[in-house]
Specification:
The protein is of the alpha/beta class and 313 residues long. It has two domains: 164 residues, Rossmann fold; 141 residues, Rossmann fold, CATH 3.40.50. The protein is 30% helix and 27% strand. The strands form three sheets. The chain has a seven-stranded mixed beta sheet with strand order 10-9-8-11-12-13-14, with helices on both faces. α1 packs across α8. The longest helix is centred in the N-terminal third of the chain and has 17 residues.
Length: 313
C-alpha cells in the first residue's frame, strides 16, 4: 500500500517546489542533485522513500538538457530505492514543439522524451498546458494535464477591462483562445501567420476578426524569443487596437525576449512561474502568477485518489 507523501525537486525550479510543499504543509524532500567536474549528474536521495508516494518537481527548462538529465536520474534513483509510486511533475515540458514530423528526416523528440521519462521509472506524469494535445498520447503511463487558463482568466476578470477582444497568436492556439474568450465573455480574433524556416522567425499575414477600437488580449502557450509576440502587437496596433495585453503559461524568455517586450507597446505580459524568471529578465510589464497552489492541489488529489479534472469544473 502506498504510504506517506514525499516531494523532491531537482535544480530547475526549487522555489516552485518549495511553494508547492508550503501549500501541502509538508517539508521538501532532501536530496543531493549536482554535477561533477566531468559534467556527469549525480543524485542521492537522503531519506527513506520505500513504498512512499513520491512526486518529483522538475521543469525541462534552461539549461534544458541538464534539467532533463536531472529528472531522469532522480526518477531512476527513486525507482531503485523502492518508492511505491513515482509521479514526474513537469510544469514545462521541454521539446514539446517537436511533436510531429513536419519536415523530412526530423525526429519526434517529444515522443522520445516521453519514452525516456517512462523508462526512467515514472508511473505518472503531471504537467501544464502542453504545446500539443497529442503529446499526452506519447505516454503509456497516465498523464494529468493542468491548465493555467482559469488563473489567467481570473486575473483579467479582476482587471475588468471593457471593450475587450481575445486574440489567438496563431491558429494552433485558437481553441484555448476560444475557451478564454468564453470565460471573459468577449469576442475572438485569430492572427494567421506563417513560420519561416527553423530560426524562430514568423511572418504575420492576416487578422481574422475585428479588433479596431478595442482592447486586445493576446494568448499563447509560451513566449520564447518574443518575436511572434512583438509582430502580433504591431499587427494589432496597425489594425486599430487601442490597448494590447498578452498572456501565456510558459515564459521561456530566451535571447533578448524581455528587452523586446520592454520596447513593445504591449501594456502587460501576464505569465506563470512554470519556468523561473531570473531578475535580469524581468521588467515592469511582466506580471508573474504562481502555480504552486494549483500544482499542490493536483498533487494532493492524486495522492488521495480524488478527481483532478474536478478542479476545473
Amino acid at each position: 500500500m502506498i504510504d506517506e507523501l514525499k516531494v523532491f525537486t531537482g535544480n530547475a525550479h526549487p522555489a516552485l517546489a518549495q511553494g508547492i510543499c508550503d501549500y501541502l504543509g509538508i517539508p521538501l524532500g532532501q536530496a543531493e542533485v549536482f554535477e561533477f567536474s566531468n559534467e556527469n549528474t549525480f543524485v542521492r536521495i537522503l531519506e527513506n522513500v520505500r513504498e512512499r508516494d513520491v512526486f518529483v518537481i522538475q521543469s525541462i527548462s534552461s539549461p534544458v538538457n541538464k534539467s532533463l538529465m536531472e529528472l531522469l536520474i532522480m526518477l531512476d534513483a527513486l525507482r531503485r530505492a523502492s518508492a511505491g509510486r513515482i509521479t514526474a511533475v513537469v510544469p514545462y515540458f521541454g521539446y514539446g514543439r517537436t511533436d510531429k514530423k513536419d519536415q523530412p528526416r526530423v525526429p519526434i523528440t517529444a515522443r522520445l522524451i516521453a519514452d525516456m521519462i517512462t523508462v526512467a521509472g515514472a508511473n505518472r506524469l503531471l504537467t501544464m498546458d502542453l504545446h500539443a494535445g497529442q503529446i499526452q498520447g506519447f505516454f503509456t503511463i497516465p498523464v494529468d494535464e493542468l491548465t493555467a487558463l482559469y488563473m489567467l482568466g481570473n486575473y483579467f476578470e479582476t482587471k475588468a477591462l471593457g471593450n475587450l477582444v481575445v486574440v489567438a497568436t496563431d491558429i494552433g492556439i485558437s481553441k484555448r483562445a476560444r475557451d478564454l474568450a468564453e470565460r471573459l465573455n468577449t469576442p475572438l480574433a485569430i492572427i494567421e501567420k506563417r513560420r519561416v524556416g527553423n530560426d524562430n522567425k514568423a511572418e504575420t499575414l492576416n487578422i481574422i476578426g475585428d479588433v479596431a477600437g478595442m482592447r486586445a488580449l493576446l494568448i499563447d502557450d509560451e513566449i520564447d524569443t518574443a518575436g511572434s509576440l512583438v509582430t502580433a502587437v504591431a499587427a494589432l496596433e496597425q489594425a486599430g487596437a487601442t490597448e494590447i495585453y498578452a498572456c501565456c503559461t510558459h515564459p521561456v524568455f530566451s535571447s533578448s525576449a524581455t528587452k523586446r517586450i520592454a520596447k513593445s507597446p504591449v501594456k502587460e505580459v501576464v505569465v506563470t512561474d512554470t519556468i523561473p524568471i531570473p531578475e535580469s529578465k524581468t521588467n515592469e510589464k511582466i506580471i508573474v502568477l504562481s502555480m504552486a497552489s494549483l500544482l499542490g492541489e493536483a498533487i494532493h488529489r492524486i495522492h488521495a485518489g480524488l478527481s483532478v479534472g474536478a478542479m476545473f469544473e
